[in-house]
Specification:
The complex is a heterodimer of chains A (about 425) and B (about 525). Chain A has about 425 residues and is mainly alpha-helical. Chain A has helices at about 5-10, 15-25, 30-50, 50-55, 60-85, 85-95, 100-130, 140-155, 160-190, 195-215, 250-265, 270-280, 280-285, 290-320, 330-340, 345-370, 375-385, 390-395. Chain A has a domain at about 115-355. The radius of gyration of chain B is 25 Å and the shape is globular. The chains are: A mainly alpha (about 425), B alpha/beta (about 525).
């Protein structure tokens, strides 16, 4: 539809009507409504799982429902104040003027950002794979490989200046992840072995490799726990504030890498190769693109991005390797890449959402006693709504998307 | 006499499209009524309504004067309507009898298949209408023309009185088509009523009693072969005057551009799809490759363009051995390729027109400078080509999936012909397109020939081959049976070659007959 046609068509309607029609056709509306629906249903589940509902039920069902609503409301209040901090405390702290109190008041906000960083890297890894027609389920394993490589560089070399040691450790992490992506990429390209199966298997290898390394070669001397030595100060991602705020350079590195991925995918001929192979491999072959090369490159790059997530966590937050440093960042990344429509900007936004929810949930668990798993339930609900946009469109009676926007997840985003 | 079938004011809307607009049509008993129209004119929608697959928004269907509601194909079959689909609905490993029984099995002793009585009925039907079918033959062993007759038998076995033929000749050689017309006439003589859907003018004039032309969902008019001629029908179908006979200068072949020697190529199923093909193609000539679909043309084109590795033989392009070259090397040597399946191979549907127009040149200057795509150059290029090749798109930035089939094909043609090329490999370049686009693409191909480009035209449309080619190579079972100069080519001769019969051969006619199951 040309603009002129559009204008004449719209002429008969009120401005508000046009606004709603445009909004309801836009491609952003589904993710937004999916998030809202997920939060809403999550609240219902919190309410339903609250004991107060059932103890009150016999006496007064209305009271019981009220209790459920109250429980849901309270948990969301703690969730969001846990994620963003409490404005009242912030104001009081600033007025008080004490540095530590101010930092404590603002810490939740920064902590949400800190939690978002691995999601940005992980989401970019998944998105780059999707764009190239590859489903990288191995991000979790690649995160562990990134962690192993970066920590090893981090504690083995000492006496290096930070401007050499830090990049070296970070890139070592990227290399570790890239290696773990390269292998299934090679198998896919040369033998047709499906990357979904092979990346899942590579995950297990990475987990068990971590277990073994932490029991034998990389075990911290003198410790009884399976943890690695602490990395040298020169390999740490610098933090911007004093304790307890852990906000570090990794956040800006992540944003820069997201911009780089965007530029690579949509502005360079290499990105054009990968996207074309992803969108229509037969046409890519017809156009002379090398599918074998493109598959291997895409999986390696995807792995490298995942490896950066691992490096970031260990160089920026944990400073040593353990078996539990990733609470499933890699698997959540698959969901958030879908939520972000496999676009770097979308990934950054969804990563911020996921990081915020995770951080808030930790506080919610501590303060309100709601298990952290409720966040996983919410993420699952959001993802279900994203994966089945027809549900969202039916519930909210939205118009069909414009033709060009159909089938967006793995394909789409023409790239202009 | 009441017509056996009347469609009265049938209207069917799809979102944004009026597929059928108050279509009225009557079919007399014992009549062959041709429904003529271009692809997308609404023929198939109308027949799907008649066959119960769609429901009309308005209008009614009357059978023998009775208003009949057809809600499913089951209703249609009970009302005596049967359809011979373009793609056969047969199970290849079953015998003719088993295929005919399928869905309507006659049994004895409560559950045991009664093949004998069905086979007997098939023999009866076969004799009545001269279909010459052996009920015990396995379908996979039968030639396509005979398989089609099995489809017809299926309908007659279910005692259909209204038969719909949907583009029945698209898979047949000209001789097989003639036989089909004979069968259609004999069916009509014995009282069956036939709706014959086609876009081929010649066939309509040959076999129909009445002709109804539809265009853009509307009935343009009904006429008879006596009152009509090719150009009148064509202009009714298209809505303007059409040049049917294509004027072109005589070819002036230059030096050999493409040399193919004893080429052997495997199919996806590892069968020898191309089995020792040899030919030379010079600049400035069009070599048409004729043949019924599936005789190795696809694999030949894929081998020539680097998409499939030959197992034996040699391909030489301008003196360079390209037998094992990659698609990109072959493209860079000056080969253009219009692929057989444009949506699967030739386009990225989710990409805008701009990106599709540089699909195989995006990495070259001026579209990329040191690996960075130059959006302005790409857009400028697209704007130019959209104008020059008359691609109807609201903007070069819309996704190519939103364009019509004809415009999608123009995107490919624009991309391939706007480069400096030496060889053009065009596979089914006009399949499924409207007459206007076909004319346009044909004239562009000849234009390239006159500029000295060597053109290999692969098509299953014999008319297209005859119009454009300077020489015609006929493929049958992976081999080139013969190469005929256009001056010596007649439809009959090419048709026989398409069936694998060399006219010079002794007993050719007999061999042909036996290959068609007449023995």
């Amino acid at each position: 539809m040309t603009n002129a046609e559009g204008e004449t068509k719209k002429a008969g309607k009120s401005a508000l009507g046009i606004f709603f029609e445009e909004v309801s056709r836009s491609s952003l509306i589904v993710p937004v409504l999916a998030i809202l629906s997920g939060l809403l249903l999550g609240g219902v589940i919190v309410g339903l799982s609250s004991e107060n509902v059932y103890t009150m039920w016999a006496e007064s069902p209305i009271q019981a429902i009220g209790n459920g609503l109250k429980a849901a409301w309270e948990s969301y209040v703690t969730l969001f104040s846990g994620a963003f901090g409490s404005p009242a405390k912030m104001i009081a702290a600033i007025q008080g003027g004490d540095g530590l109190t101010i930092r404590r008041a603002f810490n939740p906000l920064f902590e949400s950002l800190v939690k978002s960083i691995p999601y940005i890297f992980g989401g970019l890894a998944v998105a780059l794979g999707f764009r190239s027609g590859l489903f990288n389920i191995g991000v979790e394993g690649q995160i562990f490989m990134g962690g192993i490589f970066s920590v090893w560089v981090g504690y083995t070399f000492t006496g290096l200046p930070a401007f050499i040691h830090l990049p070296l450790a970070f890139l070592a992490g990227a290399l570790g992840g890239a290696l773990w992506g390269f292998i299934p990429g090679l198998l896919k390209a040369k033998t047709g072995g499906h990357e979904v199966i092979n990346t899942i298997m590579m995950n297990y290898i990475a987990f068990r490799l971590t277990d073994w390394l932490l029991r034998e070669p990389m075990k911290r001397p003198g410790s009884t726990n399976p943890i690695s030595p602490i990395i040298a100060d020169s390999a740490r991602l610098p933090q911007f504030f004093q304790d307890p705020i852990r906000f570090h350079l990794g956040f800006f590195v992540a944003l820069a890498v997201a911009a780089l991925v965007y530029w690579f995918l949509f502005k360079t001929k290499w990105g054009f190769d990968l996207r074309t192979v992803g969108a229509n491999p037969r046409a890519a072959r017809y156009a002379g693109m090398n599918i074998v090369k493109s598959t291997i490159v895409a999986m390696s790059l995807s792995g490298a991005l995942a490896g950066m997530a691992g490096a970031n966590e260990l160089l920026g937050v944990n400073h040593h390797l353990s078996q539990t440093f990733s609470p499933g960042y890699g698997f959540d990344s698959i969901a958030l890449a879908l939520l972000g429509r496999n676009h770097p900007l979308g990934v950054v936004l969804s990563a911020l959402l996921f990081g915020t929810l995770r951080n808030g949930a930790t506080r919610m668990q501590a303060a309100a006693g709601i298990p952290i798993d409720i966040i996983s339930v919410m993420q699952a609900l959001i993802l279900a709504f994203i994966a089945a946009p027809a549900i969202v469109r039916t519930i909210y009676r939205l118009k069909e998307p414009k033709k060009a926007e159909a089938g967006v997840h793995v394909r789409g985003w023409g790239g202009s | 006499m009441t017509p056996i079938l009347e469609l009265d004011g049938i209207t069917k809307r799809f979102p944004g499209v009026l597929a059928n607009d108050r279509i009225s049509l009557s079919l007399e008993e014992g009549e062959i009524h041709a429904l003529l129209g271009e692809n997308g004119a609404g023929k198939t929608t109308l027949m799907n309504i008649l066959y119960g697959l769609y429901h009309p928004d308005e209008g009614q269907i009357r059978i023998r004067g009775q208003v009949t509601r057809i809600r499913s194909s089951g209703d249609a079959i009970r009302a005596g309507i049967g359809m011979v689909h373009q793609h056969f609905m047969l199970i290849p490993v079953f015998t003719v009898t088993e295929n005919v029984m399928l869905g309507d099995e006659s049994t004895k002793f409560g559950g045991i298949l009664d093949r004998e009585s069905t086979a007997g009925r098939i023999r009866e039907i076969s004799t009545t209408y001269k279909l010459e079918i052996d009920p015990a033959a396995r379908v996979s062993t039968l030639p396509v023309g005979v398989q089609q007759r099995v489809e017809i038998i299926k309908l007659l076995y279910r005692e259909a009185s209204i038969l719909i033929f949907d583009e029945p000749t698209s898979v047949l050689t000209p001789q097989e088509a003639d036989q089909l017309f004979g069968i259609m006439r004999s069916l009509a003589r014995s009282g069956k009523s036939i709706i014959f859907i086609t876009h081929k003018l010649r066939e309509v004039l040959e076999v129909a009693d009445r002709i109804t032309v539809i265009r853009q969902g509307r009935v343009i008019g009904t006429t008879t072969p006596q009152d009509a001629n090719m150009s009148k029908l064509a202009s009714m179908m298209v809505g303007r005057d059409v040049v049917l006979e294509f004027e072109k200068a005589k070819a002036r072949p230059a030096e050999v551009t493409l040399r193919v020697q004893n080429l052997k190529v495997l199919s996806d199923r590892n069968a020898l799809a191309v089995n020792g093909v040899t030919f030379d193609l010079s600049g400035g000539e069009v070599l048409g490759v004729a043949g019924v679909q599936g005789n190795g043309q696809t694999e030949l084109v894929e081998a020539l363009t680097g998409l499939r590795r030959p197992v034996d033989g040699r391909i030489e392009l301008l003196g360079t051995d390209v037998t094992h070259a990659t698609p990109r090397q072959i493209t860079e040597l000056g080969t253009a390729h219009i692929p057989e399946d444009r949506q699967r191979d030739g386009l990225v549907l989710s990409y805008p027109v701009t990106d599709n127009l540089v699909l195989n040149t995006y990495y070259l200057k001026p579209f990329a400078e040191r690996a960075v795509l130059q959006r302005e150059a790409i857009l400028g290029h697209a704007t130019e080509l959209v104008e020059a090749f008359d691609i109807r798109a609201p903007s070069p930035l819309v996704d190519v999936s939103t364009l019509s089939g004809g415009n999608q094909q123009k995107v490919i043609v624009a991309r391939e012909l706007s480069r400096p090329i030496k060889l053009l490999v065009a596979a089914q370049p006009t399949r499924g397109l409207d007459v206007g686009s076909i004319e346009y693409i044909h004239s562009r191909v000849i234009e390239k020939r006159d500029e000295g480009v060597a053109v290999l035209l692969v098509s299953t449309e014999l008319d297209e081959i005859m119009q454009l080619s300077d020489r015609i190579a006929v493929m049958y079972r992976g081999q080139i049976v013969d190469i005929v100069a256009i001056e010596d080519a007649t439809k009959e001769r090419i048709g026989l070659l398409m069936a694998g019969i060399h006219p010079g051969q002794a007993g050719a006619e007999r061999a042909f007959a036996s290959s068609q199951g007449f023995a």
